[in-house]
From TrEMBL:
It holds the Pfam family TP_methylase. It is an enzyme of class 2 (transferase). InterPro entries: 4pyrrol_Mease (IPR000878), 4pyrrol_Methylase_sf (IPR035996), 4pyrrole_Mease_sub1 (IPR014777), 4pyrrole_Mease_sub2 (IPR014776), rRNA_ssu_MeTfrase_I (IPR008189), SAM_MeTrfase_RsmI_CS (IPR018063), UBC (IPR000608), UBQ-conjugating_AS (IPR023313). This is E2 ubiquitin-conjugating enzyme. It comes from Malus domestica. Residues 15-166 form the UBC core domain.
Amino acid sequence: MTSSSATSRKALSKIACNRLQKELVEWQVNPPAGFKHKVTDNLQRWVIEVTGAPGTLYANEIYQLQVDFPEHYPMEAPQVIFVPPAPLHPHIYSNGHICLDILYDSWSPAMTVSSICISILSMLSSSTVKQRPADNDRYVKNCRNGRSPKETTWWFHDDKTVQTAQPSLHSLSVCPNKASIIPFCSSSPQISSELTDSIPQPPSKQGPIEPGLYLVGTPIGNLEDITLRALRVLKSAHVILSEDTRHSGKLLHHYSIKTPLLSYHKFNEAQRGQTVLKRLKEGEIVALISDAGMPGISDPGTELAKLCVDENIPVIPIPGPSAFVAALSASGLSTDEFTFVGFLSKHAGSRRERLTVSANEATTQIFYVPPHKLHQFLEETSSLFGYSRKCVIAREITKIHEEFWRGTLGEAEEAYSTHQPKGEITVLIEGREDSPVVAPSESQLEDELRDLISSGHSLSTAVKLVAEGTSVRRKTIYSIALKKFGKQLGSQSDADPCKPQIDDLILSNYKAVVHAFDFYLATNRRRV
């Protein structure tokens, strides 16, 4: 039997040719038991003889498999059918089409022709009855024009219901915008059982996915950190909105999700939002994902959620990983109360204002920091929070090079002064102690001023640094400094850092006037 897709197939890519030649050599050395490859000069189509296993309903019966390889094998599954007459089996149609999950949605590039054959033989061996699928006649009729089995949308159920428990065709649902029948078949009993643990179950078991906006959490590093519910929503959606379609495409390909992707990011969210809103009003299921973590948490999604709320469109969260929650849970700092700040402003004034507020809060403070700005961040926080404040720097969470650095802000500033780390960084800083702040005594202030002046700081700079580290007003500290150190520093102490210097302004203006007058006299002399 030859399908339309097989006759119009494209030539194999170089990767596919190399892979098939390697598999062919391995097959000749160690062929799977019960199978024989019929050698031809066509690498793109293999014909394989199958012999039923002893002690089964198909013992010593011989059938032929036809395997057609697509251009981009093994990234794409081959088309595998029985050449009629096909075995009588509850999951094999009379036209040779096979209802086996690893040939479709559960295909993995790591699989080979040998593993396919072993899985098919296992399926035959586990059968307890020789009969066609319940919907065989209707399905075969719909395939008369040479439709490939890969064009069919298959649902799989428990292999135990292989006899009369199969539902009739009329009880099965049809996917929106697809005219193809959806046969209801079993999954592979052996090899595919491990591969399909993460594949969502059909809606008939889980309940239908209702129209609305789904905010789906995605892994922050390790692709295994995704929920079954998230996979089911992503497969059921009409469209997936993604911050970076190339990045998200890797995740979707890993889980064989073929839902269309549409870009949605901060540069197009205003325009794209209205388009998406229209589709939601028409009853579509829209999933929104970010590059990593939960949409709307330091990522696009907030504005679209607001639009949907205003229009009474359901907004459904599908919980998933979040870097700051993972970092907090493993930080060892207080989790009773915390403040998630996220990314700070690029503007120094706004950034310092936010850090000043955080420095005085009693809750654990959590920040996202770009790696190239980590040292600057540590300099600013150690100055405002204090060098002895505890902190945790979490890097590359859930990835191979995951790292938790623990210490004080002063130690962190020193540790990261000579090298710039790589990867995603979350910084957690312990909250300010609840104990009342005790103002330092005058003698303590004098000691701090003396240390700073001795190390080379001017009087005004020393006053500024001491004031930033205490609750004492700068004017008070300046008075103490002037009284204690004014005479020994002479004119250096005459400048009050709290007030504009009038004398300097007058002198500057005087010099400007004299310069202008000299220029006037010189000009008039030339004219005379």
